[in-house]
Design brief:
Distance between the termini: 19 Å
Mean pLDDT: 84
Largest sheet: 7 strands, mixed
Number of strands: 13
CATH topology of the largest domain: Rossmann fold
Shape: flat
Radius of gyration: 29 Å
CATH class of the largest domain: Alpha Beta
Strand content: 15-25%
Length: 462
């Protein structure tokens, strides 16, 4: 049905072994041209779902590498097609030579996500499960990993199948109403009850969608403040390495810098931003603009204040604006507490008295204990973020949009059922539209362009 495709399925970089995957109708014919098996076996005589030691050879029958061949005939394979995986030594020259040899023997290089797309097109997985595979690969937290794995196993697909069955039940009530036109039998109460329950279940699915990026991508923590407030020193101390350049020259950091730590089962990405001040320098102005954007997009904002000097009125106004706008996610961090103090926690409480429940920490980037205190406070805030997330599934933007459309359709049916004259035919029409949204969600009736868009975001070897 499909031509044979090949790609490396393990990430590039240091490691003992790499895996190269081939899938397609003529995969055995391709392997026959480039393989030599131990014991004079041939690929034609090898049974499916077995593993064999052998060699990849070039066109001159010279050995490229000793490998393991994992043979899986369709339809009992991930793609549903004949599939052979080659485990070779993880050397880029060997990997490229094997892939080039496969292409010489009739395969072509796989497109991004093409293996998973073939699994979907061969009805091995639903579109929802296909998207979950990408979430599983890209997971940046333990929560994302668990939820993505559950969706790969079909939990979300089963949930959607339940919604579909509920809609079909409501349609059955509408159909029954047509059968009892001459009798005084009112099915509206059952329809209203079922639709209301459906809408509640949809709300459960949608819960916390705006914050799901935290589960998928990890926590973003932005360090913002005026120039020379000690942001870069704090950034380096939190990361435990000198990643940002630190000098006494104002405006040294002109662009946002990123650094990550793995904490509490999630990646924390620290964002060191340009110092905010009035500047005529075009490059510095762009950096300041990005500082505000970083604060907007961050899950936690560290408002960094130099405690070794008094705050200017312009700085007070700046910090106040940021603290008010991001009150729920901000922490004041007073740096340089190893120097004489001119701005204290009491000063912050007085200057920003209108901001309730402020977190205020005093640190020195040279004192490991104070850095630990910052991390402990961050851990508490991160845990609160995760504790408030009750959504059972991770939704893609595509899935969320379709669920919203289905929700609107169901909301439109309620007035029809509450009317003095129940319009069963109109309710049926609306419910058919809701079923269409569900079919698009699972991939039963999705267009080719949407399928291509979904799988284009995958890595090549998947």
């Amino acid at each position: 049905m499909f031509d044979t495709i090949v790609a490396q399925s393990t990430p590039s970089g240091p490691g003992a072994i790499a895996l190269i995957r081939l899938s397609g109708k003529f995969v055995r014919e391709c392997i026959a041209k480039l393989s030599r098996f131990m014991g004079k076996k041939t690929i034609a005589s090898i049974a499916s779902h077995t593993v064999h030691l052998g060699y990849i050879v070039d066109k001159n029958n010279e050995k490229i590498d000793q490998v393991l061949f994992i043979v899986m005939d369709g339809p009992k394979s991930f793609t549903g097609e004949d599939t052979i995986e080659i485990t070779c030594h993880n050397n880029p020259f060997i990997i490229n030579a094997i892939i080039s040899r496969c292409i010489e023997c009739g395969a072509r290089h796989a497109a991004a996500g093409e293996f998973t797309q073939r699994a979907f097109e061969n009805n091995k997985i639903s579109l929802i499960e296909g998207e979950a595979i990408n979430d599983l690969i890209c997971a940046q937290s333990e929560q994302a990993l668990k939820k993505a794995l559950a969706q790969v196993d079909g939990n979300f697909s089963h949930y959607i199948a339940g919604l579909e069955q509920d809609i079909l039940t409501i349609l059955a009530y509408c159909q029954a109403s047509f059968e009892f036109l001459d009798q005084e039998h009112d099915f509206a109460p059952q329809i209203i009850e079922q639709i209301t329950a459906l809408l509640q279940r949809i709300q459960t699915i949608k819960a916390d969608y705006p914050m799901q990026h935290v589960i998928k991508e990890g926590i973003k923590i932005a360090l913002v403040g005026s120039v020379n407030a000690g942001k870069s020193s704090l950034f380096n101390a939190l990361l435990g390495k000198a990643q940002a350049i630190v000098t006494d020259i104002a405006g040294t950091t002109r662009d946002t810098l990123y650094g990550s730590l793995y904490q509490q089962g999630a990646f924390w990405t620290f964002i060191d931003t340009a110092g905010i001040r009035v500047s005529n320098d075009i490059i510095e102005q762009e950096g300041i603009k990005r500082s505000y954007q970083a604060a907007e997009q961050a899950d936690i904002v560290l408002i960094v204040v130099d405690s070794s000097r008094e705050l200017h009125s312009s700085e007070i106004e700046l910090y106040h604006d940021i603290a008010v706008k991001h009150a729920e996610k901000s922490i004041f961090v007073l740096t340089k507490n190893d120097l004489a103090q001119k701005t204290s926690a009491e000063t912050i409480n007085t200057l920003f008295a209108d901001i309730n429940n402020k977190h205020i920490l005093s640190v020195s980037s040279h004192d490991a204990h104070s850095i630990v205190a910052v991390k402990n406070t961050l851990m508490q805030l991160v845990q609160k973020i995760f504790d408030t997330m009750q959504a059972p599934f991770l939704l893609s933007a595509r899935q969320y949009h379709l669920i919203e459309q289905m929700e609107k359709v169901l909301q439109n049916t309620l007035p029809l059922a509450h009317s003095d004259i129940v319009y069963y035919e109109l309710i049926s029409k609306e419910l058919q539209q809701a079923l269409e949204h569900l079919s698009t969600l699972t991939g039963k009736t999705v267009s080719t362009s949407i399928i291509d868009t979904v799988f284009r975001t995958f890595c090549v070897g998947k």
